[in-house]
Amino acid sequence: MTDAPSTIAERSAEVLVRSTPTVIARRVRGLSDRAIAWLFITPTIALLLAINIFPLIWAVYLSFTNFRANRPNAEITGVGLRNYQRVLNDPDIWIAMQTTAHFVFWTILLQTVIGFSLAYLIDRKFRGHAFWTTVILIPMMLSPAVVGNFWRFLYQPQIGLFNYIVSYFSGIPPSSFEMLGSVSLAPWAIIIVDTWMWTPYVMLICLAGLRSIPDYIYEAAEVDRASAWRQFWSITVPMALPFIMLAVLFRGIENFKMFDMVMLLTGGGPGSTTEVASITLKREAFESWLTGRSSAFAIILFVAVFGLANIYVKALNKVKQR
Amino acid sequence: MAEVILHGIAKTFGDAAAVDDLSLTIKDGEFVVLLGPTGAGKTTTLRLIAGLERPDKGRVTIAGADVGRQSPAERDIAFVFQQYSLYPHLSVYDNLAFPLRSPARRLSSDEVDHRVREVARMVRIDHKLENRSTRLSGGEMQRVAIGRALVRRPAIYLMDEPLSSLDAKLRAELRLELKRIQKDLNSTLLYVTHDQVEAMTMADRIGILSEGRLIQVGTPREIYADPANLHVAARLGQPHINLLPVDLLPGASAPTGARTVGARTEHLEIATAGAANAEVDWIEHLGDQNHLHIRVEGHKIVTLADPYLSVKPGDRVSLTLKQPLYFGTDGERLR
Ligand SMILES: Nc1ncnc2c1ncn2[C@@H]1O[C@H](COP(=O)(O)OP(=O)(O)OP(=O)(O)O)[C@@H](O)[C@H]1O
Ligand SMILES: [Mg+2]
Fold first, then answer.
1. In chain B, where are the structural domains located?
2. CATH topology assigned to domain B4-235
3. What angle do CA A201, A205, A210 make, to 5 degrees?
4. Which end of chain B has fewer beta carbons closer than 10 Å to its terminal beta carbon, N or C?
5. Span A45-61, pLDDT tens digits
6. Residue B143 beta carbon below 6 angstroms from any ligand 1 atom
7. Which atom of ligand 1 is nearest the CA belonging to B37?
8. Omega of the bond prior to B239 within 30 degrees of 0, cis?
9. Contact with chain B for residue A216, Cβ under 8 A
């Protein structure tokens, strides 16, 4: 190592080595680049293994057993695929899956339509658009716990602002309906809150998409005599589509596992009308203590989300490559 | 096709004047080239005509009608943008068909197909019709952009350096092709470039633009042989015009007030015999012709030379002026 270090990287590495205590420096100098790289990433990998990969593998193992976490000393016996069979044949779980699908569908639909419309308006760069962007983003920045409790108040039949506003516009007395207590309204109560909180997120991604369309494309279209309507459908939408699809993917995955908002607002009730898959899972795991069976359920959910997301990402890449 | 007139248009960005009191008439069926260095306001002028920019002052009339209040779509113009502006998510075919599919045009899909294929052949892009427009080379994109303008029959074509990223051979071909198309259709065309060869070969008239001002307008011959000032003279001619002090070389009969002599190849006579006043510095061989670099008392002169002229670096030659151009202290031409 007699050659003078040439590149900036080498030089700064040299400086770093010089300022390291000699004992360490001597050791490090003896290591190859590859060894040093491993030295840096090993702690991270170890941590990931400990808190992500190991529990995952452990859950896979438990899903084939009759283990119950409230009886840690009982003997664990393998049950083969029986847990999986039970889960897939359980009508309650299928109902929970349907409820989840219903939530995912409506939240995505509402959030995409409203989010894209807001992004489209803000992209017009009217006066004060920066201010309004910030205001719109506020719900997203709040903690779900705050949002949940806050909306519980809004939904209060006697004093809630939500009921009051609905009654103001529709003339129905405010205490005549309970958003969280009624079987038909409770799912919508949750969809409304989730939409209120996460539409800004979708809007932000759509806005990035709209901003990525250069002005001169619109100028060319204008000169080519494309109407505003045609410009929207033949330029704006197709060019922003990969971004919209990305937002849908993020929200889809997120809402498939939706837990906090449901727990805070209805706890799955009334009855089991808002019991989404993750709530059922929590019940099986920590109320019935069927750890083995709930592990099987969790893995089925994981595979389902993973599979759907993969198919979707393939479609997304196809759109992007067009 | 229509006559387009600019009446003293001006446009400032911030406090920099991009276009300054520009008046120009582009006659029906005329091919006008705006020639100017980068930042001269060429693109801005086209955008003002297209209605993509509003003038601060002045008026634009197309076919006799003031278009000040009309949107770009209403003005019936076709524009080839400097940065191509293709629709990236569409194929070449759909890019070319886009202007024709405007509901206002009501063309049948057979007609659209016919026009698209015809134009694709003209601009040599017919073998790539199904390609996505993002999967093209810069030159191919540029040809699609030209094609997208040519599918239409507008009042005026506006073209912003449409051949700038093509190779020399294709550029020469398309130059001829574009000129031929323009003649055949008898279309009105305003073409922007900083390439003097394009200007000289295609234009019916050239407008020389500098810092937002139109300095001189005329036929290529007029602009070349009879430049209004130093700036115009310096823009045309290959190699560049040599600017020398009046009394450097013999043969000048300068009018009073002349400060600078402009001498192109045709204004210089080189003789190997006689009283030598210059020395050959070096010779650039360009193939069909040579650039001769000559030094006279510390001034460098570049001129075209017959490849058979037998001189070599270090030779002394005699240099005489032959009816050169004279310019005053302000750079204006003196006759
Ligand atoms: N949108 C704009 N905002 C601010 N300044 C601008 C804008 N467009 C053009 N300019 C300025 O106006 C002047 C003329 O610009 P223009 O684009 O017309 O030049 P050009 O002759 O087309 O140059 P080039 O050959 O490089 O394309 C430049 O100094 C440029 O900086
Ligand atoms: Mg330009």
1. 4-235, 242-334
2. Rossmann fold (3.40.50)
3. 140
4. C
5. 999 999 988 988 988 99
6. no
7. 25
8. yes
9. yes
